[in-house]
Amino acid sequence: MKTMISVTNLVKKFGNLCAVDGIHLEILAGEIYGLVGPDGAGKTTTMRLLCGALGPDQGEIVVAGYDVVRQTELARTQIGYLPQRFSLYEELTVIENLRFFAEVRGLKTEDWKPRCIEILQFVGLADFADRWAGKLSGGMKQKLGLAVALVHQPKVLLLDEPTTGVDPVTRQDFWQLIIRLAESGDVVVLVTTPYMDEASRCTRVGFMKKGCLLVEDSPELLQKRLTDRVIEVKGEPLPLIRRIAAEDADVEDAHMFGDRVHLRIRVGEIEAVSNRLEKQIVLKHGIVTQLRVVPPQLEDIFMELLELNTND
C-alpha cells in the first residue's frame, strides 16, 4: 500500500512549551489512524501542522507525495480537514456552503453540482440542502463539515475530534461514513478522538502525551500488552471496592469502568490477588457479585501508558 502521510521528527514549540516533540508517523492508503491522548497532548497541533495551518520548527511532513512546508498549496489540494469547532458559514444554506468551498477549490459548475449532490446523499443531508447551516443540529453540522472536507475529493482526510458533543446515534452514523471512506481504498483517514470505543475501530492507534507518541499499533496488538493482567469486579459499594483494591501491593491500577472496577495486576499475581481481594471486600462489609479475569480494553492500555509515562 502507498504511504499517504509521512512525518519525520516533527517538532513544534510555543515559547517554552514543546507541543509536538519529535513525532514520526507513516500512514498508508486505506488506513484509519487514530490519535488519542489527554487534553494538551498535542493532537490538535499535530493536525494543524499536517494541513499546513502551522509551520513546524523542525522535521518533515509529506502528504500524498507533497512536502507540506515547501509545496503547501499542492499538498492542500489533497487534504480534507475537519476542525474541532464548526467553522462554516451559518448564514448560508447547506448547499451554498458546499458550493462556496467547491468554487474556492477551483471546481467548475458542471463539476461541483453533481459532486455536491453525491456528497449530501453520502452524509445523509440530501433532504436538508436548503436549510441554513446555523439551524442544523450539532451532529448535522459535523456531517456538513465532513461533506465540505470531501467536496474536492481529497486523498487525505484529517478529522479533529469530529464526534465530540454529538449524541451516540450520530456518533455511530458518522463512524459508518468514515469506515466506508477508508474501505474504498482511495482515502487515508487520520482522526483524533477522546473515545476509546472509536479508537478501537481504527486500523492503528497512536497514544500521545506531552507532545510525544508513546506507542502505536493495531488495537488488537495493543490490548495483548495486558493479557491475563486485568480483573473486573462488580459489586457494591464501588468506591469501597476500588479503595480496597488500590491498597493491594500487587494492584498497579484500579479505576471505575461504568458499573464495575477494572484492576491492572502485576505479572504473575492475578490468581493471588483474586483470592485475597474478595475476602478483603467481604471482611469490610462490601458485596462482590462478580470477580473475573477479562480481556483488556483500550482504556486499560491508555491508563497503563499514562502511568508509565508519568513515572518516567
Task: Please provide a written account of the structure.
The protein has 312 residues and is α/β, with parallel strands linked by helices. Helices cover 37% and strands 28% of the residues. It has eleven helices and 14 strands. The strands form three sheets. A six-stranded mixed sheet has the order 6-7-8-3-9-10, sandwiched between helices. The protein has a four-stranded antiparallel sheet with strand order 2-1-4-5. It is elongated and about 75 Å long. The mean pLDDT is 91.
Task: Summarize it.
This protein is of the alpha/beta class and about 300 residues long. The chain contains 11 helices and 14 strands. Helices cover about 35% and strands about 30% of the residues.
Provide the CATH superfamily of the largest domain: P-loop containing nucleotide triphosphate hydrolases
Identify the CATH class of the largest domain: Alpha Beta
Q: Please count the helical segments.
A: 11
- Strand runs, count: 14
Question: What is the total number of structural domains?
Answer: 3
**Residue windows where pLDDT falls under 50 for at least 5 positions:** none
